[in-house]
Design goal:
heterodimer, A: mainly alpha, B: mainly alpha, 72% helix
Chain lengths: 313, 279
Amino acid sequence: MTGYILRRLFQTVPVLFGVSLLAFAIMHVVPGDPVRLIAGPDAPESVVQRVRAELGLERPLYVQYWSFLSRALHGDLGRSLRSRAPVTAEILSRFPATLELTTVSMVMAVLVGIPLGLVAAVRRSSWIDYAAMGASLSSLSMPIFWIAIVAIWLFSLQLGWLPVSGRAGPFWEWDGLRHIVLPAATLATTSIAIISRLTRSGMLDVLGREYVTTARAKGVPPAGVVGKHALTNALIPVVTVVGLQYGFLLGGAVVTETIFAWPGVGRLAMTAILQRDYPVVQGCVLLVAVVFVLVNLAVDLLYGWLDPRIRYE
Amino acid sequence: MSETAQRFLRHRLAVGGLALILLLIVLALAARQLAPHDPIRQDLPHALAGPSLEFPLGTDEFGRCILSRILYGARLSLLVGVIATTIGAGAGILCGLVAGYVPRFDAPVMRSMDVLLAFPSILLAIAVVAALGPSLVNVMIAVGVRSIPSFARLARSMVLSLKELEFVQGATALGASHARVLFRHILPNSVSPLLVFSSMQIATAILLAAILSFLGLGVQPPTPEWGKMVSDGRAYLMEAPHVSLFPGLAIFVAVMGFNCLGDGLRDALDPRAGRVAVE
């Protein structure tokens, strides 16, 4: 296992290097001169030159990249062009909201997706199976912003059960819980569809295996066969997908956070992109990609632990 | 009728998907003849009107016919879906073929693909459009770039398995050039999985392009685009929910069609994959 962990860690290094290179490139591929943007359109040449020198943009690219990388490794991602606050602080102040939204949504997805897939597999070709798989295929085909809008229209505007948008404290408080239900449920729809389909196909595969037939022949009750013998094995690929979805949602909740005015990293990134606040965009992109790579790594390691065959490939 | 076609036609969901797509193509092509109104012309006295005989799906905040805008919008969504997927498939397949066939290119090409995969697709597409500027062409590029790594991985895995087979080694032994081996022997035998994957990617591309337009980074007004139409209707959810509802349904139908078609093609072209994962 140690060799496997070291090998996977080693493979992550070039990817993280590439990610940092792409994040660095953002500042240099945008149309126009970023210095003009920072100094203002009417700034005199002397100010423009001073800002350029302050940012170190007159130095060769490789020197700039090295400086960017070493500062980033020390947690310094520069300052926001709009608020002048350190980018790291801006991101860290919003990360708990994103983490909370993603975690609640993944818990919802697992609690709904796995039982749904399980029932669909056990009752294969019944109306429950068709309804569950029809619903999951449909939700995979729906744009998430539309699901959000229909949910707001129904649960907030028509029924008045839940607030339209915003965050009101942690989810374990009543008001916080009411605010997180709609965005988390919206975010969970795709994950529920993926998890339920995967659980179902995994279960169908496992239920046909000889060791399950043996367990049945030995007189293990149906609940034991499904719950202990089949589900534990069928869930191995589900664990991978849950991990990947979690990593994906940590950075991919841009749309949901924007629609529900959820004060997380996704919304910060979106606002920064629209305001052309490049240091913030750079920071968000770097953070999201690094988190995604690390979650992938963790999932791979977990998978290697759950299924020893992977380690020896 | 070939066995593949029979398998496809037996897959009811796939036939339904194909029918939906064909219907959408016909509606998009005949938009000029079918649309009851000019999709861009404003008619303020009829703003936010509900569905009626004159406006079957109602009107938006400028009194524009939603049905007409959806019909014209179909052209754009299908076009973006197909062209973006073609961009991603073209670049991705080329990268995958080279990585799989030439060992010394394998690590650098695939590690670059890993870097692209490290960015969540929505964020990557948003960043590309933000850098290039909002326009239809840039949306196609952004959405296409996102799918390059997935196509590259698939193409590479096909090359790796095919290049060990006897007919490919035979061609190499007979002196066929590398390009001939790649494009005459390996690529044609990889068409089935690539076709299945492409049809599903068109669905994802339509969704992603709609998201970009919804966020204001796609096609600019007054061009009718489904994602933008949903976004514009948000402000009138209380009094006129149909403004957002119908364009969203159109996106759903189009994406569903390509997803079902992809599932059906997979079953028809690769029966070994089984129906378990797709039913």
